[in-house]
């Protein structure tokens, strides 16, 4: 699996630069300055955004699943995603005239605040019941989500909110996606502590016995998860699938040693999102199908094939 | 009588058991020994239908494993598996009580309560009955699992490495208890052991498995020999005979 | 434990009284059957979803899952969206209600049973695989739904919006009877399984050793879950906001509260406790929504907000105590 993914990635990247509503051919680059303009302002940022979103969402999904020791949890629904949505909503309602970057910053801060809230909530939980952590995260996320729906319903903004939140890359331009670099940075930090997170996934006792500072690693891990989710939701909307399913797929093949699995997860997530985006641009050209819809279809097909291809691996 | 006829078992292309046949008559303590990967745990789990039989036939008294009703087999044979990851959050008393399920199907009667009390007392767990499984020590948890298998009140009792996590006093106590149950209550105990000395000290019959085959079968003095140690376990520890029983000097 | 049940019964009576009497205007001969039907629907839906969630959590051995993770709610919204997309909001509203009910019930039950049958046959049913497949299919369905919704006129979207949250404002008595017909036998069967569920909760090896091979129990439980969730959702609509992710919040909160209020591993305690709490939450939530908030918010939103806060409060108090 790793080799396939690593080969696919550069191919998809190059493809993405030339595919879109405005047709572009490599030959044009030689004599057409507007072609370069298109790439610089639209295609390259879009490609980078897709790659970074896919990679960071997949990696933080895997981290969260390792920390929570539960394979069915993902950042979008465990508080970080909903807090980001709340931030987006509040900003739209309270300061509708603010510049885009300000809106993004406020929404991102809201997401971070939400995650800090979750960390405080988790602190007093008894360590002998590890199942409580994902449960609390889900309930907490649900409460915030309910709050968001409540406010949106009152202000008759539900459809608008849904549109903003549906993951989409068509609005990505230079100057609109840079927050994702922060997400990439946060994810890179987690790779540095990947071994420690793996250890934590073996259980608190084992981890402590090996001298690990459980609180610190949990905080770092969750912090990265929140930053990534916030940046992605605010820039691109909610991108489903990647944080939940890609880690599951990768760990079925490669196991749970994060130092080895994370790069593959990142590459797989990036390839998946970029592939879905390209497909969305191509299928009904010149119309675009949003990446979240494509992910649902492509991702599902891919996942089910991998899951059921190998009958002896049970 | 447990009859194993021509049982072979493959796992992911690896042969774990190769054409194993043996008879385990009623009564007595039978120990299964062998190096890691010899197939002891697999054999036990096949007898207890925890895994599906691939080739061969196993019968327990007049029931054929795989063809009989599960509850009937559960009333005849109890197994305490090695990796007992009990997922429910139970108290010790509740866990031991679950052992009576094949008999009462959910509605315990006086006989069931009595059996549970007896099992708790036998394994020194009466004081711990209200504690949760995740609140007690590993050794205590192990005893609780054995107690549950005993409470099942069956003629045949299968145990897979029950001495893990038990200190020397608890180990000796458990093995002595098993021997008493075999002798006085007529139970047949089949036990997988890693420590050869416990097999030598408490078993009536020792069966050695290696590479998926039975390589030795008989009373301890006959089976536990320097030949076995070097041939099967690839080690050359000395054997002393003390009070008529072989003791491996580790 | 008895005192906890007395407490729960007391709360239930209180919420029923509140629902029936608060803000009562008009004659009793009208109110009684009108509110009575709604009450019956609320309780039926509550019992169905609570029972289905308890069953599902036991056979998957995972406390953060609920049956809606398998995409039942998503299917309902897809059918709704497809109908509005194809027939228009007016055409959808003109559909006879029993037909709609039968369609929903048929699609959800059929799809669920098909999925379970495909995945559980051939002996080695891996529950993790089953759940993951359900999640993925649910995501797929949601993706298609969102895509369709984007192509729908905003004015038509209103119809979808209000119909994709559970509503009890008007209950068709024929539908109530049909749902009861499907759900009550399923509930009875689930209750009969209570001791087997205790054994199944021990894990595969222990359960097999006690004469209860998990496969059979899982299959039977899945059929019951299918029928219960399909019936409840077809009657009232999805009891989730879709913001809590694939897992429906309602089932999660209700069963988690049951574990907190009546801590016992026995299903003979858990099943009735969860059902009681579900009824209390639904009836109480509906009362708050109708009388205090005057229908300004969908019911699932109220439930998730209040239910979730209650759960977190109780949990933290227990953790610190």
What is the overall shape of chain C? globular
Shape of chain B: globular
Radius of gyration of chain C: 20 Å
The first-to-last residue Cα distance of chain B is 35 Å
Quickly give the structural class of chain C: mainly alpha
Over the alpha carbons, how many angstroms does the gyration radius of chain B reach? 18 Å
- What is the distance, rounded to the nearest whole angstrom, between the alpha carbons of the first and last residues of chain C? 19 Å
Count of discrete alpha- or pi-helical segments spanning 4 or more residues of chain B: 10
Mean pLDDT of chain C: 83
Largest β sheet strand count, sense and barrel closure of chain C: none
The helix count of chain C comes to: 13
- Strand tally of chain B is 12
Mean pLDDT of chain B: 88
Main β-sheet of chain B, in a few words? 6 strands, mixed
Low-confidence stretches of chain B: none
How much beta of chain C, percentage-wise? under 5%
Return the structural class of chain B: alpha/beta
Largest interface, and how many residues on either side? A-C, 56 and 55 residues
Question: What is the number of beta strands of chain C?
Answer: 0
Q: How are helices and strands ordered from N to C of chain C? A: HHHHHHHHHHHHH
Order of helices and strands of chain B: EEEHEEHEHHHHEHEHEEHHEE
């Amino acid at each position: 699996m790793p080799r396939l993914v690593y080969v696919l990635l550069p191919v998809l990247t190059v493809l993405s630069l030339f595919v879109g509503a405005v047709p572009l051919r490599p030959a044009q680059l030689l004599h057409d300055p507007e072609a370069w303009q298109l790439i610089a302002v639209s295609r390259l940022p879009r490609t980078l955004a897709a790659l970074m979103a896919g990679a960071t969402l997949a990696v933080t999904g895997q981290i969260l699943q390792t920390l929570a020791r539960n394979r069915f949890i993902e950042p979008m629904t465990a508080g970080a995603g909903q807090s980001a949505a709340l931030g987006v909503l509040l900003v739209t309602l309270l300061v509708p005239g603010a510049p885009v970057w300000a809106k993004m910053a406020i929404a991102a801060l809201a997401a971070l605040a939400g995650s800090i809230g979750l960390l405080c909530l988790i602190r007093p939980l008894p360590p002998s019941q590890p199942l409580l952590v994902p449960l609390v995260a889900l309930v907490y996320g649900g409460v915030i989500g309910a709050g968001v729906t409540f406010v949106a319903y009152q202000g008759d903004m539900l459809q608008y909110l849904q549109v903003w939140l549906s993951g989409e890359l068509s609005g990505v331009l230079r100057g609109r996606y840079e927050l994702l670099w922060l997400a990439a940075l946060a994810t890179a930090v987690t790779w540095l502590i990947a071994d420690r997170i793996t250890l934590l996934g073996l259980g608190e006792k084992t981890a402590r016995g090996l001298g690990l500072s459980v609180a610190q690693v949990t905080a770092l891990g969750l912090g990265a998860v929140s930053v990534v989710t916030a940046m992605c939701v605010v820039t691109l909307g909610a991108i489903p699938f990647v944080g939940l399913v890609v880690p599951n797929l990768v760990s079925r093949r490669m196991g749970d040693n994060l130092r080895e699995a994370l790069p593959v997860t990142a590459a797989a997530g990036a390839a998946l999102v970029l592939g879905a985006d390209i497909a969305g641009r191509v299928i009904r050209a010149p119309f675009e199908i949003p990446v979240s819809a494509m992910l649902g279809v492509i991702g599902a097909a891919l996942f089910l094939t991998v899951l059921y291809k190998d009958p002896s691996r049970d | 009588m447990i009859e194993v006829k021509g049982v072979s078992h493959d796992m992911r292309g690896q042969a774990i058991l190769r054409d194993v046949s043996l008879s385990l008559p009623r009564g007595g303590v039978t120990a299964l020994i062998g190096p890691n990967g010899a197939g002891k745990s697999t054999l036990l789990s096949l007898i207890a239908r925890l895994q599906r039989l691939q080739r061969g036939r196993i019968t327990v008294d007049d029931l054929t494993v795989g063809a009989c009703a599960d509850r009937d087999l559960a009333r005849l044979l109890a197994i305490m598996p090695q990796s007992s990851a009990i997922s429910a959050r139970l108290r010790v008393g509740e866990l031991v009580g679950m052992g009576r399920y094949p008999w009462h199907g959910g509605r315990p009667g006086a006989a069931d309560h009595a059996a549970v009390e007896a099992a708790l007392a036998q394994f020194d767990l009466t004081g711990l009955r209200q504690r949760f499984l995740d609140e007690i020590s590993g050794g205590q948890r192990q005893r609780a699992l054995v107690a549950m298998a005993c409470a099942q009140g069956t003629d045949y009792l299968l145990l897979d490495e029950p001495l893990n996590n038990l200190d020397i006093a608890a180990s000796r106590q458990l093995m002595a208890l098993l021997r008493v149950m075999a002798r006085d209550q007529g139970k047949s105990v089949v036990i997988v052991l890693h420590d050869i000395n416990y097999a030598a000290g408490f078993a009536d019959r020792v069966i050695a498995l290696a590479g998926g085959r039975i390589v030795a079968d008989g009373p301890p003095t006959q089976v536990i020999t320097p030949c076995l140690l070097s041939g099967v376990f690839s080690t050359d520890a000395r054997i002393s005979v003390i009070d008529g029983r072989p003791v491996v000097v580790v | 434990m008895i005192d906890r049940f007395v407490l729960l019964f007391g709360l239930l009576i209180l919420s029923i009284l509140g629902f029936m009497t608060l803000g009562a205007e008009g004659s009793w001969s009208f109110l009684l059957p009108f509110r009575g039907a709604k009450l019956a629907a609320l309780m039926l839906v509550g019992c169905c979803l609570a029972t289905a969630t308890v069953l599902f959590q036991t056979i998957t051995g995972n406390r953060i899952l609920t049956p809606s993770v398998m995409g039942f709610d998503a299917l309902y919204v897809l059918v709704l969206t497809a109908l509005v997309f194809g027939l228009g909001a007016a055409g959808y509203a003109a559909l006879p209600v029993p037909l709609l009910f039968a369609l929903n019930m048929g699609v959800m039950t059929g799809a669920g049973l098909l999925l379970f049958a495909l995945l559980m046959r051939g002996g080695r049913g891996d529950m993790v695989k089953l759940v993951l497949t359900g999640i993925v299919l649910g995501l797929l369905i949601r993706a298609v739904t969102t895509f369709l919704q984007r192509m729908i006129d905003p004015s038509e979207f209103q119809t979808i919006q209000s119909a994709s949250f559970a509503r009890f404002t008007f209950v068709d008595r024929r539908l109530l009877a049909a749902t009861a017909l499907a759900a009550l036998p399923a509930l009875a069967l689930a209750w009969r399984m209570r001791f087997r569920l205790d054994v199944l909760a021990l894990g595969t090896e222990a359960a097999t050793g006690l004469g209860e091979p998990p496969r059979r129990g899982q299959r039977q439980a899945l059929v019951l879950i299918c029928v219960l969730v399909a019936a409840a959702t077809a009657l009232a609509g999805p009891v989730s906001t879709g913001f809590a992710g694939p897992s429906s919040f309602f089932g999660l909160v209700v069963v988690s509260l049951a574990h907190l209020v009546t801590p016992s591993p026995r299903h003979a305690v858990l099943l009735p406790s969860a059902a009681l709490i579900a009824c209390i939450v639904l009836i109480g939530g509906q009362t708050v929504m109708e009388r205090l908030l005057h229908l300004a918010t969908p019911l699932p939103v109220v439930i998730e907000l209040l239910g979730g806060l209650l759960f977190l409060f109780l949990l933290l108090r227990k953790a610190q105590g």
